[in-house]
Design goal:
By secondary structure, this protein is mainly alpha-helical. Helix content is 49%, strand content 10%. The chain contains five helices and three strands; from the N terminus they run αβββαααα. The protein has a three-stranded antiparallel beta sheet with strand order 1-2-3. The chain starts with a helix and ends in a 7-residue tail after the last helix.
Length: 151
Amino acid sequence: MTEPLEKRLEKAMAELQAAQEAVARTERELRQASFAVLSSDRAVRATVGPQGELTGIEFLENKYRDMSPQELAASVLEAASAARVKMNRHVMKAMAPFTEPSSNVPELKGFELDWERIFGPEVLEKDDEDTARAGRDTPGWRDALGEDGED
């Protein structure tokens, strides 16, 4: 027996309202997010903001003094790029629930996003850090607050 149209419409409206509230919460959280990443030589820490914009550069332990300009530039670019990819992945994970179909209202299909087109192909590559973190009890929000224990 199929559900009456009024009941289905009521469910759809409730689901839509819940989705709108969830999107608003997610947007607020994303506006506050930032990620900091160390370069592989541990000479530079780059921080990016919610739109992947560079918001900070730190030169650590005076290592820059012994680096050529090219080495220092490479370290800055490496750290900034890695932080941007980290932020992009965070956005993808935060938005993932909105791309899935509704379990309660089959007519609400979710939406498709081409993450590669939006952020570039590196965002879809395997993330060794996330894989390594999966076994730890450290919540993901700690990185967004800069509390990832890298200091």
